[in-house]
Amino acid sequence: MEPSIFSKIITGSIPASFIARRDLWVAFLDINPRAEGHTLVVPVEQKQRIRDLSTESQRSLIEGVSEVSSKLCSHFNIEDCSIVVHDGPAAGQEIPHVHIHIIPRSKGDGGKSLLAMFPDVPNPGVIEPNFSELAELAKTLYLD
Ligand code: AMP
Predict the structure, then answer these.
(1) Residue 124 belongs to a domain
(2) Which of the residues 36, 38, 86, 138 has an alpha carbon 20 to 30 A from that of 74?
């Protein structure tokens, strides 16, 4: 497998501004920050989607997200972050190596929420939720 840009960053052949290096994940600043401190948490294991990662990498990655978001919040004196994953190309992924965006957020920063990703879907409260359809779908998706 051809190493991804992020694998090249991890092995040091491409530079990056690291804020953490651990055995199973690293974190470095995004070169096109959506807000100051926008960080990518990246598993060392090169896989395109979260479900392809080993269980060990998955668990470690979420610890990384927690550790990095705590650091960003204390550093920028904020409470909140947007934590975003484009898990595959149809979901907006540009680099085929799992990465979790952590973007510091504060009130009135101009950033949007999940609702902005689907502007054509009516906002909550505009139409009644279709509970029977949701229940049917949940039945077919249920993980035994
Ligand atoms: P995504 O659209 O979720 O695949 O996001 C890819 C992200 O990687 C974008 O936010 C890019 O700005 C960022 N990115 C691309 N190349 C680099 C790089 N060499 N160092 C840091 N971030 C990068």
Answers:
(1) no
(2) 86
- Say what the alpha-carbon torsion angle 88, 142, 66, 21 is, to the nearest 10 degrees: -50
Cα-to-centroid distance, 85 and ligand 1 (Å): 12
Shortest-distance atom of ligand 1 to CA 29: 21
In a domain, 67, yes or no: yes
Single pTM value for the model: 0.96
* Tokens representing residue 103 in the block: 């973007």
Q: What confidence tens digit (pLDDT) does each residue in 93-126 have? A: 999 999 999 999 999 999 999 999 999 998 888 8
Give residue 125's pLDDT.
85
Average pLDDT, the chain: 97
Whether 47 shows a pLDDT value over 90: the answer reads yes
CATH number at residue 77: 3.30.428.10
Residue 9 CA: nearest ligand 1 atom is 19
- Phi/psi of residue 38, each to 5°? -50, 120
* DSSP three-state, residue 62: helix
